[in-house]
Design goal:
Distance between the termini: 61 Å
Structural class: alpha/beta
Order of helices and strands: HEHEHEHEHHEHEEEHHEHHHHHEHHHE
CATH topology of the largest domain: Rossmann fold
Largest sheet: 5 strands, parallel
Bound molecules: adenosine-5'-triphosphate, magnesium ion
Strand order of the largest sheet: 4-5-8-3-9
CATH superfamily of the largest domain: P-loop containing nucleotide triphosphate hydrolases
Strand content: 5-15%
Helix content: 40-55%
Length: 405
């Protein structure tokens, strides 16, 4: 009985997303969920302690989905999150996903999309931090050919690309203040006005937004419009940080070992597990994934990484705040072309700074992961980062360069 219960719960809580087959599996799992809920209450104490281990050992059926969209968990907090996501999916209302960096907000957005009525259509992610405000309107709402210099052809825009599907507004808290009313109008009226077009176009899309900022404080500080905040604040799903759902840590470790061991037999020693369980995980699941990847890279086949191995790896990542450009570190605004009048090496330096910074930020400050994307060794990236962002470095100061305060 216990084994069956544990296996079913494991299957339930290693949710795999990403294709039609996965959706069918998920529906099946949802049915099992209600049956298990009743069972698990009576067996809670007996099964809870062994559950993490069991969940980690059970492998979901092969070929169900890609590695990219797996959501792995076993904590009560995440079960509640997934239940809310299912309710959001069924309702179709605007959903705001909040939580620290690397907690899995994008995965939850994909889960909502896949469990909703629009799962056969596209989920279109749009990163609100990635575009300068002067490009926002035409990128977002589209434009007609000839509506401004450089508009050489009609551009449909991101919202139209999401018609019939889901628009995922990532990092909504970074949306420039003067662009916010235009988005609000779309959210309220369901219509867009492409630049240079007289008639509005009606677009039917569901909207999911995410942020790692406290939008309410931003409203009080005048950085975010109250009316847009209230329009977004309909159904809010808050993902707790990993340190507040420690039951997930070892299950996630096993998941990432499977992903990064490439078939080698790697098991964590009890000391390593204890260390991982105690750590505070400021970079959340992304940081955990990075640490496990490094442990796998360093371990020999059959070797069990020790507590000391884990402590060494945990002490090496750099805080994201340390990566941010300082005054004098000039970087290109994303989407802005290189201004004229620069020497080649000045222009290349600027591009390097932008690209290195973006990649590190995307990986929550994990040098190893960022280095892999950039085609560098971790050591090589650390050296490059030091060189590119050394204070006092002589840099050009053309227009269109974002100078952080
Ligand atoms: N529960 C989970 N199971 C498996 N992988 C996860 C889980 N949560 C997060 N991840 C992985 O961690 C990484 C970060 O997740 P995601 O991009 O969804 O986080 P986020 O909250 O959107 O982060 P950010 O605020 O930095 O954009 C991804 O590689 C994702 O696949
Ligand atoms: Mg994200």
């Amino acid at each position: 009985m216990e084994t069956t219960l544990a296996s079913l719960r494991s299957a339930l809580e290693i949710v795999r997303l990403g294709d039609r087959q996965a959706r069918e599996v998920n529906l099946h799992l949802q049915e099992l969920a209600s049956q298990l809920k009743a069972l698990s209450h009576s067996h809670q104490d007996a099964s809870q302690s062994a559950f993490g281990e069991t969940a980690a050992r059970i492998r979901p059926p092969p070929g169900v989905t890609t590695q990219k969209n797996q959501l792995v968990y076993c904590s009560a907090a995440m079960r509640e999150v997934v239940a809310m996501a299912s309710r959001a999916a069924a309702s179709g209302v605007i959903t705001l996903i909040t939580g620290e960096t690397g907690v899995g907000k994008e995965l939850i957005a994909r889960l909502i999309h896949l469990r909703g009525a629009r799962s056969g259509a596209l989920l279109v992610p749009f990163n609100c931090a990635a575009l300068p405000k002067d490009l926002f309107e035409s990128f977002f709402f589209g434009h007609k050919r000839g509506s401004f210099t450089g508009a050489t052809r009609d551009q449909g825009g991101v919202i139209r690309a999401a018609a019939g599907g889901t628009l995922f507004l990532d990092e909504i808290g970074e949306l420039p203040l003067d662009v916010q009313p235009k988005l609000l109008r779309f959210l309220q009226e369901g219509e867009i006005h492409p630049v240079g077009q007289a008639c509005p176009i009606r677009i039917d899309t569901r909207v999911i937004a995410s942020t790692n900022r406290r939008l309410q404080s931003d409203v009080l500080a005048g950085r975010f419009r109250a009316d847009l905040f209230y329009r977004l604040n309909v159904l809010v799903i808050n993902l707790p940080p990993l340190r507040e759902r420690r039951d997930d840590i070892l299950v996630l470790c096993d998941h990432f070992i499977e992903k990064y061991a490439f078939g080698r037999a790697i098991q964590l020693s009890p000391g390593a597990k204890a260390c991982l369980m105690e750590y505070d995980w400021p970079g959340n699941v992304r940081e955990l994934s990075n640490i496990v990847q490094r442990l796998c890279a360093m371990a020999d086949d059959g070797q069990a990484p020790s507590g000391a191995d884990v402590r060494r790896e945990l002490s090496s990542p750099v805080e994201v705040s340390q990566l941010l450009p300082r005054a004098g570190d000039q970087i290109l605004r994303p989407g802005v072309s290189i201004p004229p009048g620069l020497t080649l090496s000045e222009a290349v330096g600027m591009l390097e700074r932008q690209h290195v910074l973006d990649t590190l930020t995307r990986h929550g400050g994990n040098f190893a992961r960022a280095a892999r994307d950039l085609g560098l060794s971790t050591f090589g990236l650390r050296k490059k980062h030091l060189r590119l962002f050394a204070t006092g470095a002589k840099q050009a100061t053309p227009r269109n360069i974002h100078q952080p305060e």
